[in-house]
Design brief:
The structure is a single chain. By secondary structure, this protein is an alpha+beta fold. Helix content is about 15%, strand content about 50%. The strands form two sheets. Strands 2-3-4-5-6 form a five-stranded antiparallel sheet, with helices on one face. Strands 1-8-7 form a three-stranded antiparallel sheet. Strand 4 and strand 5 form a beta hairpin. The N and C termini lie close together (about 5 Å).
């Protein structure tokens, strides 16, 4: 009767965000989105996202300038959707007990930023 808690990017929300505000690289079919924003401390940050629909890998590069130095952060992760995770959990003897869409405990919806799952070993 062990419990398992997992926190993931919400694949549906991520896909919708990139489709709505980005585009597709015709040569590769990769979805892309580039967005610049200015933070409250006047720091300008550029986010470049790519989602490969064949491999379901999402990569993001965040770039900003501090003084004369260009800084960046990169991430590259596999995106999973709820039916996929649910099937993997069932196959390994777990039952989903609860879903949340953020760390405040909001209900999970397709537009939720996160997919937080509490499962129980059966």
């Amino acid at each position: 009767n062990g419990k398992f808690l997992i926190d993931l990017n919400n694949g549906i929300s991520l896909l919708n965000r990139i489709v709505e505000s980005g585009g597709t690289v015709k040569k590769t079919g990769i979805l892309t989105n580039v967005k610049k924003s200015t933070l409250s401390n006047n720091l300008t940050v550029e986010n470049k996202e790519e989602l490969n629909l064949v491999t379901m890998r999402w990569s993001m590069k965040r770039t900003w300038k501090e003084g004369n130095n260009l800084k960046s952060y990169k991430t590259n992760v596999r995106i999973f959707f709820l039916p996929e995770i649910n099937a993997m959990l069932k196959r390994n003897g777990f039952l989903v007990e609860k879903l949340w869409g953020d760390f405040r405990g909001s209900n999970f919806t397709p537009s939720s930023w996160r997919l937080i799952i509490l499962a129980r070993k059966i």
